[in-house]
Amino acid sequence: MVLLGDANWIATMRAAEKGEADRAYLVGTGVPVVGAWLAGTLVGVLFGAVLPDPHALGRT
Known about the structure:
mainly alpha
């Protein structure tokens, strides 16, 4: 489903208007989005423990 995200969908639709797009174009623009999503998730998994307790941040 990430391959159908906004950024690559818009790029594919713009290219389709020019007659340049096909399924490979959609996948080619989606792979970097998937990579960025997975990299962000990995950073969160590895370094999320250094964040303080969110409940403690909400108390006054």
